[in-house]
Design goal:
By secondary structure, the protein is an all-alpha fold. The protein is built from six helices and no strands. The chain has a domain of 79 residues: Endonuclease Iii, domain 2. Helices cover 43% and strands 0% of the residues. It is rod-shaped.
């Protein structure tokens, strides 16, 4: 069928990729994508499935995974998100601060407490 169904994820991707205007609705997104498709009408549904899977895995509503996205260099939103992050700070594993050694626990184990004095 020469119809391109649009859901929230595909609509979000189209807005982030600036395929449609920012205030466009889902119907306008579907019409715009159908007009700009250069693929045959039989490829509309497979393209929909691929875009849906991509939107669900990478282009999420909150905390999109732009570092892992293959479209990040084409996506104005992805470029903006990646520009503000340092590459080596993200690639490096988070380092844990060493715990301080509490000497009072180990040092007091051999000390004589007040009232428990040994008599020689």
């Amino acid at each position: 069928m020469p119809l391109f169904p649009v859901d929230k994820g595909i609509h979000r991707m189209a807005k982030r990729l600036q395929i449609v205007r920012p205030k466009a609705g889902e119907a306008e997104t579907g019409q715009t994508i159908e007009r700009t498709l250069t693929t045959p009408a039989t490829q509309c549904f497979p393209l929909h499935v691929l875009m849906f899977a991509h939107a669900k895995k990478y282009c999420r509503p909150r905390n999109p995974k732009c570092r892992q996205c293959n479209l990040a260099m084409m996506c104005p939103s992805g470029k903006l998100r990646l520009r503000h992050r340092k590459s080596d700070a993200i690639d490096a594993a988070p380092t844990r601060r060493p715990r301080p050694v509490i000497l009072s626990r180990s040092a007091s184990a051999g000390l004589i407490k007040h009232g428990d004095e040994e008599v020689d």
